[in-house]
Design brief:
Elements lengths: L2 H16 L3 E2 L3 E11 L10 E9 L2 E7 L3 E7 L3 E8 L2 E8 H10 L6 E11 L2 E11 L5 E9 L4 E2 L6 H5 L10 E11 L2 E13 L16 E3 L1 H13 L2
Parallel strand pairs: 7-14
Antiparallel strand pairs: 1-11, 2-3, 2-13, 3-4, 4-5, 5-6, 6-7, 8-9, 9-10, 10-12, 12-13
Helix pairs in contact: 1-4
C-alpha cells in the first residue's frame, strides 16, 4: 500500500467538514478532532488529525495537521487554493469558481438522501440533531453517514462550490445545518475503516483579515486539472 493512498483518505475525511457551506455569521473558528480507525498499524499516524476552520463573511480557511502531514485550504468566493506538505514535500493548486462549477456539472452521481431524526445531544456547547446521509458511489455501493447538526450556525450558500472540488466522495448532499460530528464506515482498496469527527471548540471571536491571505511561496503549484488527476491516482493506489 502506498503512503499517498492514506494521505488522500484522511484528507478527504477532514475536508468533508470544511467543504460544507460556510456560516453566515461574521466570524467562526471551529476546532475538530478526526480519527480514522482500522488502518494498518504502520499507517495509524495518518489517521489522527486536528482540524481548525476559520470563517469570516465569504472567506474560509481550514488547517489540517497531523504527525505526518499538514494541509491548508482557502476559499474567497472566487478562488480555492489548496496547499499541502508531506515530509518536506510542498505542493498546491488553485481552482476558479468556474472550474469548480464545471467539475460539479460533470459529476453524474446520484444525489445523497438525508433523513432527519429527533435524537439530540450537545457538542462544543451547541445542541445538535441527528441526521443520516445515504449516498451511492459510482460502484453502486451504498454508504450511510451519521451526522450531528446544529441550526445555530447558519449557512452561506456561496461556499457550496467548494464541496465536490475537495471532498472527493464525502458529499453530504443538501444537509440542513452545520455538522459538528460525523461517523461513517468506509471501505476502500479492500479495507474496512471507521471515520469519526467531533468538534471540540467553537468560537465567535473576531478573526483578523490577515488570516485569509494566501502565501504559496515554497510550494510546487499545479493546475486544478493536474490536481484532480493526481487525486484519482492516489485513490486507486497507483
Amino acid at each position: 500500500m502506498k503512503t499517498s493512498f492514506f494521505l488522500n483518505l484522511v484528507a478527504s475525511a477532514s475536508l468533508a467538514f470544511l467543504t460544507l457551506p460556510a456560516a453566515a455569521q461574521d466570524s467562526y473558528t471551529i476546532k475538530m478532532s478526526v480519527k480514522v480507525e482500522g488502518m494498518p498499524a504502520e499507517y495509524a499516524a495518518y489517521g489522527e488529525q486536528e482540524v481548525t476552520t476559520y470563517i469570516k463573511g465569504n472567506n474560509t480557511k481550514t488547517e489540517i495537521s497531523s504527525m505526518m502531514f499538514s494541509s491548508t485550504v482557502y476559499y474567497n468566493e472566487t478562488t480555492l487554493t489548496s496547499l499541502s506538505e508531506t515530509m518536506g514535500n510542498k505542493t498546491g493548486y488553485t481552482a476558479t469558481k468556474e472550474e469548480l462549477e464545471g467539475m460539479e456539472k460533470g459529476e453524474k452521481t446520484e444525489a445523497p438522501k438525508v433523513e432527519y431524526f429527533t435524537d439530540k445531544k450537545t457538542i462544543a456547547g451547541f445542541e445538535c440533531t441527528k441526521a443520516v446521509v445515504t449516498s451511492v458511489g459510482k460502484d453502486k455501493k451504498e454508504t450511510k453517514t451519521t451526522v450531528w447538526i446544529t441550526d445555530k450556525i447558519s449557512l452561506n450558500e456561496n461556499h457550496k462550490k467548494m464541496r465536490k472540488a475537495t471532498s472527493r466522495g464525502m458529499d453530504l448532499g443538501d444537509l440542513k445545518g452545520y455538522p459538528l460530528a460525523m461517523e461513517a464506515n468506509i471501505s476502500q482498496n479492500g479495507m474496512d475503516m471507521k471515520m469519526v469527527m467531533t468538534a471540540t471548540e467553537v468560537s465567535t471571536a473576531p478573526i483578523p483579515d490577515a488570516t485569509f491571505i494566501v502565501n504559496t511561496e515554497g510550494y510546487k503549484m499545479m493546475s486544478y486539472k493536474e490536481a484532480i488527476e493526481m487525486a484519482k491516482s492516489m485513490r486507486s493506489g497507483k
